[in-house]
UniProtKB/TrEMBL annotation:
Pfam families in UniProt: DUF3381 (PF11861), FtsJ (PF01728), Spb1_C (PF07780)
HAMAP family xrefs: RNA_methyltr_E, RNA_methyltr_E_SPB1
Region (Disordered) location: 392-412, 448-496, 536-654, 669-744, 848-917
Residue ranges annotated for the DUF3381 domain, each copy included: 269-417
Keywords assigned by UniProt, alphabetized: Methyltransferase, Nucleus, Ribosome biogenesis, rRNA processing, S-adenosyl-L-methionine, Transferase
Any GO BP: maturation of 5.8S rRNA from tricistronic rRNA transcript (SSU-rRNA, 5.8S rRNA, LSU-rRNA)
Organism: Naematelia encephala
A GO cellular-component term linked to this record: preribosome, large subunit precursor
Annotated family: Belongs to the class I-like SAM-binding methyltransferase superfamily. RNA methyltransferase RlmE family. SPB1 subfamily.
Acidic residues bias: start-end ranges: 464-494, 571-583, 597-610, 675-703, 711-725
Full protein name: Putative RNA methyltransferase
Length: 942
């Protein structure tokens, strides 16, 4: 919203309208009550409130929000009000006895602490037909208030400034100790409405009905003065005072009476106001004419000019005036349409009138001194002036209040800024409502700060700026700002300097913020590590090194499939052509070469990108597990020794040894050769092998080979030693890494793809396009050189780069197919057993294997015993083997026989039951079950 908008009525309307919407109020008028409540603290002390004319319910919402919990809130309107929690509403016309009855019913003999009235008659229908005008409605609401208000209670009503305003105020003053008129900031200035807050209801025992009778309170047309100079006497209701002699003049006077502020309209057009009083009685036309005689002879010519459209020259005398030298063509044309005249024209007409009156002898030319005396004569203050004075007072009050509020807001702002500096609180956290109430548009206006800096030519803290703003009138501030804008813009250098200073400050704050984050957030380090990984993956041109500069991530490129250059790529280029990382020339040369290759054979290119052979990494392979694997198992290993004790030593493959060396197998026992005889075991092995291979592709394990061969027997395994060397992994806090210095980036990436496949939807998408020949490799390369790759990072603040890293990346459109491929992959991954399950299975198998080995050894011993016969030997061997395989553990099933019917009370085996059995009591079974249930439930609860 621009400055102009902010000040104009429309802007204000928009502001409160939007705020009401934001804060869930049903009408912008809600803010009027908020403002009134702020000033007079009406709601927090009230336990019972009646809102007359409450639809759609904005005031009710405010009352509900600010009144103590459990208060009685009643709303009445001609229109139904959508339900509001804790609020009672009903439909009624407040001018009817039914409304009174309903109110009584809802009040349950309570008395209201507060009666609100924001009613406005339905001006959609013809004013003339409307039985009650606004102020009559006010009187009606006052009547209800006097009936339902508690002694000392308050009454708030909306009044339209009009001729009846003073009469109303007078009535209020008779019934309440304090009566104040106020115009809340949310009430538009152009609106004639004003709010009257009457406090401390006197609750007289008897109220003269005349106080509440519109006929007595409001002056009827005949009682109104015909001249603006005539003082208003609200008590007079019968003496019509008119100086006009003719009937035409009388009707004009009546009209004047209803428009007795017209003189202000004529000479002060900027104060033109809407007619809130409707038409004067008996005068329902908009076009009015007056005769020249009326104009010349009337006591209040200004008022006549203001209420008339045309002055006519009808009588002979008037026609004679047409020939007067004073009646120029200009004057004549002015008389023909008074509504289009300006101030000057009216002055000319008044001069014409004076001249004519002098000629006619109606006026005597006064000498200049007399004129002066006349001019300074203090005329009695008329109603309009009283209202203007009242308004002036209100405006002064308002500006004082605004200043106070601004000061408060500034203090708050200072606090918020401090908070921002300390905790990086988001400016959006600031309370919207308060912002609105203080009339503040933006709480954290960096622009203002910048301007301030520019103005004073030095770097100052934001708190200082806030302090300085204190006491500065809003309009003054705005004008100054406007002027300063020009001043600032004229000095670019100065501006630049100050921008830098501000940026420096921001950078510093950001650094502090990150520091705090790192202290607070345990995951921050992990995040940073990830960012570091991303840096590693970033595009650096076609080169063999790494670049820490770029912190973006090119997922495609990370996957080794897509080399889409990323922002900041050329930052490294810019660092110099002689940079060891390549530079533009090198990149361009490489690209040209690639293009050439692509031209010769696109498919070749594709192969090159997709299936670049992975160099066998013979140097250092770091596994993502805490294993510290020795290159060779020491011969003195306790595990091996124990195996050697047996006659048939089961040796494992080297990979198997590594596998069982993991910490998870610690304490399980000795390693022994696996027996491949057991079919069941074999199946399990296969299963495990599959899952293990999937679980960790870095380690290959072949249980079958482990069971059937030894290191000595299997030459292949012996060869293995030469080509596969495991070295202790370097402790690395960031998890899986590869040796940056030694590895070729492309190879590493290819390796990752081989191991893990494509990891991002973008990579899958581009790979699919390549495979389906929708794009060629060179096109892909070309697409990498886009605007995102030409992004200079030099001199940009860290916070900006950090933020850009999140969003400033190539947007590769992704198809459904690509997403589906990834999803499938994820599903397959999810379906795999988790590592712990695989480990547990392996442990179980390992123990079983050990048991079997032991049983075998024992069986051998039994077989060698000469004392035993073959049958006995066979029995013992089978028993041992059964134990080892766990088959003997299988318990024979016990049959449960319920002791009822024929089985009730029997001793011994029930009839027809073979094998193991148990007789149970039906009742006991139920009870035992119940007890178990209770026990289980108790456990769960604890
Ligand atoms: C400006 S709105 C009131 C807005 C309300 N204070 C709010 O915040 O939502 C004026 C209301 O006065 C109601 N009204 C006018 N004459 C009435 C009457 N005689 N009895 C009851 N309600 C009346 C209209 O129906 C209209 O809903």
């Amino acid at each position: 919203m621009g400055k102009h908008d902010k000040k104009s009525a429309k802007g204000r309307l928009d502001k409160f309208y939007k705020l009401a919407k934001d804060q869930g109020y049903r009408a912008r008028s809600a803010f009027k009550l908020i403002h009134l409540n702020r000033k007079y603290d009406l709601l927090s002390k009230s336990k019972c409130v009646i809102d007359l004319c409450a639809a759609p319910g904005g005031w009710l919402q405010v009352a509900e929000k600010y009144m103590p919990k459990g208060s009685l809130i009643i709303g009445v309107d001609l229109h139904p009000i959508k339900p509001i929690p804790h609020v009672t509403t009903f439909v009624a016309d407040i001018t009817t006895p039914e409304c009174r009855t309903q109110l009584k019913q809802n009040m349950h003999d309570w008395k209201a602490d507060l009666v609100l009235h924001d009613g406005a008659p339905n001006v959609g229908s013809a004013w003339v037909q409307d039985a009650f005008t606004q102020n009559e409605l006010v009187l009606q609401s006052l009547k209800l208030a006097t009936e339902f208000l508690i002694k000392g209670g308050s009454f708030v009503t909306k009044v339209f400034r009009s001729q009846d305003y003073n009469s109303l105020m007078w009535v209020f003053q008779q019934l309440f100790k304090t009566v104040e008129a106020t115009k809340p900031p949310s009430s538009r200035n152009v609106s004639a409405e004003i709010f009257v807050v009457c406090r401390e209801f006197l609750a007289p025992k008897h109220i003269d009905p005349k106080f509440l009778d519109p006929k007595h309170v409001f002056k009827d047309i005949s009682s109104l003065p015909t001249s603006i100079t005539e003082p208003i006497d609200p008590s007079s209701s019968t003496t019509p005072a008119t100086s006009a002699s003719t009937s035409a003049a009388a009707s004009a006077a009546a009209r004047l009476a209803s428009n007795n502020h017209s003189h202000a309209n004529v000479f002060m057009p900027e104060k033109k106001r809407r007619n809130r009083d409707g038409y004067a009685d008996g005068d329902y036309t908009l076009f009015h004419t007056a005769t020249a005689t009326e104009f010349v002879k009337i006591a209040d010519p200004v008022a006549l000019l203001g209420s008339t459209n045309k002055i006519e020259f009808l009588t002979d005398e008037e026609k004679l005036w047409l020939k007067s030298r004073h009646t120029t063509p200009d004057i004549l044309s002015n008389f023909s349409d008074l509504k289009v005249l300006g101030k000057g024209d009216f002055k000319a007409l008044m001069k014409w009138r004076l001249a004519l009156r002098l000629e006619l002898g109606l006026d005597v030319k006064a000498d200049p001194t007399q004129d002066v005396t006349e001019e300074i004569t203090v005329e009695p203050i008329d109603e309009e002036e009283q209202i203007s004075e009242e308004l002036k007072r209100l405006n002064e009050e308002k500006s004082t209040r605004q200043r106070r509020e601004r000061k408060k807001a500034n203090e708050k702002k200072a606090r918020e800024i401090l908070k921002l500096q300390l905790n990086m609180t988001a400016p959006e956290d600031l309370d919207n409502e308060d912002k609105a109430l203080s009339g503040e548009a933006e709480m954290f206006d960096l622009g203002e700060g910048e301007k301030e800096l520019s103005r004073h030519g030095r770097k100052r803290s934001l708190d200082e700026l806030v302090d300085e703003e204190d006491g500065l009138d809003e309009s003054e501030a705005e004008t100054e700002d406007e002027e300063e804008d020009d001043e600032v813009l004229s000095s670019d250098e100065e501006r630049e300097l100050r921008t830098q200073a501000l940026e420096g400050e921001l950078d510093h704050l950001y650094d502090e913020y990150r520091e705090r984050q790192s202290e607070r957030d345990a995951k921050y380090k992990v995040k940073q590590a990830r960012i570091k990984d991303k840096n590693f993956d970033a595009w650096h041109g076609i080169k063999q090194g790494s670049d820490d500069e770029d912190d973006g991530v090119d997922k495609g490129y990370r996957d080794g499939m897509v080399r889409v250059p990323r922002r900041g790529d050329d930052a490294s280029d810019d660092e110099g052509e002689d940079s060891e990382e390549g530079g533009w020339d090198v990149v361009a040369a490489q690209k040209a070469k690639l293009d050439q290759d692509a031209d010769s054979s696109d498919s070749e290119d594709e192969d090159e990108i997709e299936e670049r052979p992975i160099k066998k990494a013979k140097k250092a392979v770091h596994f993502d597990r805490p294993t510290v694997a020795p290159t060779r198992r020491p011969a003195s290993s306790g595990l091996v020794q124990s195996l050697q004790e047996g006659e048939k030593r089961a040796e494992m493959s080297r990979q198997a040894q590594l596998w069982f060396d993991q910490s998870v197998f610690k304490g399980v026992g000795d390693l022994a050769a696996l027996d491949g005889d057991d079919e069941e075991e074999e199946d399990e092995d296969e299963e495990m092998e599959d899952s293990e291979e999937e679980e960790d592709d870095d380690i290959e394990m072949d249980d079958a080979s482990a069971t059937s061969s030894t290191l000595d027997e299997d030459p292949e395994l012996a060869d293995d030693d030469d080509e596969f060397e495991i070295v202790p992994a370097e402790p690395d806090e960031h998890g899986p890494e590869w040796d940056v210095d030694d590895e070729n980036q492309d190879e590493v990436k290819q390796k990752i793809i081989k191991e893990k496949g494509l990891l991002t939807a973008e990579a899958v998408e581009l790979a699919t396009q390549l495979v389906n020949r929708k794009i060629t490799a060179s096109q892909l390369m070309d697409s990498g050189f886009n605007r995102l790759s030409g992004y200079h990072k030099d001199g940009l603040p860290t916070w900006f780069l950090d933020d850009e890293a999140k969003h400033y990346k190539a947007n590769i459109p992704i198809t459904k197919e690509a997403i589906n491929i990834l999803r499938e992959k994820q599903r397959a991954l999810d379906a795999r057993p988790i590592k712990k399950v695989a480990e547990a299975k392996a442990r179980k198998k390992f123990k079983a294997f050990q048991r079997q080995e032991k049983a075998k050894r024992k069986a051998d011993g039994v077989m060698e015993t000469e004392e035993l016969g073959d049958r006995e030997k066979a029995r013992q061997v089978s028993k041992m083997m059964g134990k080892a395989t766990g088959k003997s553990k299988e318990k024979k099933e016990k049959k449960v026989v319920v002791a009822r019917g024929a089985n009730k009370g029997i001793q011994g085996r029930p009839k027809g039951v073979k094998g193991r059995y148990k007789i149970v009591d039906a009742r006991m079974r139920k009870e035992v079950r119940a007890m178990k249930r209770v026990k289980k439930a108790g456990k769960k609860r604890s």
